[in-house]
Design goal:
This protein has 69 residues and is mostly helical. It contains 1 helix and no strands. It has a domain of 30 residues. The protein is flat and about 45 Å long.
Length: 69
């Protein structure tokens, strides 16, 4: 995937693309299955996995910010 070659359904996931490092920012690299070509049940499992990880991240971040008060 380059400016001259746009992303397609066969393009690698963003996880394989370098992410610029930002000071003071935390970057997470979650290994998650690619839902492309999978059935509805598999996609739902992937969606639920992402939802669970986001909830954990939210509560962990919230707890860390409470420690600063």
């Amino acid at each position: 995937m380059t400016p001259s070659k746009p992303a397609t359904s066969s393009s690698p996931w963003a996880l394989e693309t370098p992410v610029p490092y930002s000071l003071g920012k935390r970057h997470l690299n979650w290994q998650i299955d690619d839902p492309a070509g999978q059935g509805v049940d598999a996609v739902r499992l992937i969606r639920n996995e992402i939802r669970g990880r986001i909830k954990k991240l939210y509560y962990r971040t919230r707890l860390l910010s409470m420690d600063r008060i």
